[in-house]
Amino acid sequence: MLDPRANPELIGHEDAAAALERAARADRLHHAWLIAGPEGVGKATLAYRFARFLLAGRPDATPLLHVPAESSVFRRIAAAAHADLLTIEAGTLQGDRKRSDVINVDAARLIPGFFALTAAEGGWRVVVVDGAELMNPAAANAILKVLEEPPPRAVLLLVSSTPGRLLPTIRSRTRRLDLHPLPDATLHPIIAEWLPGMAEAERHALARLSGGSLGRALQLAESGGPAVHAMVEDALQAPTPVRVMQIADRLAADRNGASFGLFFTLLRRGLAEASADAARGTTAPGWVSARPLADWAGLWDRLGRLAEETERLNLDRKQAVLTGLSWLRPDSA
């Protein structure tokens, strides 16, 4: 899948793109936008698309916010080489201490300094903070002055999958755009285009598992999503000892651990969805009635800790699967 900064296509989200274009063309552009929504639906793609549109001089073109891939602005943004665009993300300015789960204060302090500069090309200056929820408290506080006293012709684009983790003072000073999961009618043909060799039934399974996220669908495909989901379904239906061993062997054979992590993610999702259905009194799988709902909630938490510790401590994945599946048996409660 293309890096968002180099992706010329925006799948869906026409209303959000239209809102950004209208604001830019009417010269009433808010100085800070919070682009929110589930992972993989196109938030960063939209942010970079809007950045290109502004830095290219707001060209008249269709589709919305379109800048041709052959243009100089497009190519420089794709190469992270445009002087009037700054990207902040986890790991920025952390060198050998790079972490994938935090944006620190040193990175955030680049933003006011960047906005204090004169635009190199005489137009706008744009900052994209990808994964804004990863700002630690010091980093979040470092950008408040920019939000309170915005410089002219400068736009801050905060991209977040969990906007509730942002400071209320940040949320209140940004204009929010929510991107929603893609409908099946949009998602299915795109999956077919990206994965033409996959069977139709598997593509439908991917769409269902992805929750309307193209990015998640492609990640699931790389990790054998439909096959892993079938293993999860078997695991929840009181499988035989032979089937349990087959599942453990297959997941342990995946050297990079992607299938292992996906299995536990989907397993916990299955527990959560079935428990929620049972709590609402709607149709739920028969295996849910084998335990009180509170037990399933506790098991959801235990499975999460087991998967996390196995990966963090480099423990035996096969044994972790066997242990987790043993907890699913009614006699293990």
List key phrases describing it.
333 residues; 50% helix; alpha/beta; 2 domains; Rossmann fold; 5-stranded parallel β-sheet
Describe this structure in words.
There is one protein chain. 50% of the residues lie in helices and 8% in strands. The chain is an alpha/beta fold and 333 residues long. Strands 2-3-4-1-5 form a five-stranded parallel beta sheet. Helix 10 (200-210) packs across helix 11. The chain is elongated. The model has no long low-confidence stretch (mean pLDDT 88).
Helix content: 40-55%
End-to-end separation:
43 Å
CATH topology grouping of the largest domain: Rossmann fold
Number of domains: 2
Q: Tell me the structural class.
A: alpha/beta
Strand order of the largest sheet: 2-3-4-1-5
Indicate the CATH architecture of the largest domain.
3-Layer(aba) Sandwich
User: Nearest-angstrom radius of gyration?
Assistant: 23 Å
What's the tally of helices? 16
Task: List low-pLDDT spans.
Answer: none
CATH superfamily of the largest domain: P-loop containing nucleotide triphosphate hydrolases
Q: Beta fraction of the residues? A: 5-15%
| Largest sheet report | 5 strands, parallel
Total E-strand runs: 5
N-to-C SSE string, H for helix and E for strand: HEHHEHHEHHEHEHHHHHHHH
CATH class of the largest domain: Alpha Beta
The backbone outline, from C-alpha atoms, is elongated
Query: Whole-number average pLDDT?
Result: 88
Short synopsis of the structure:
This protein has 333 residues and is α/β, with parallel strands linked by helices.
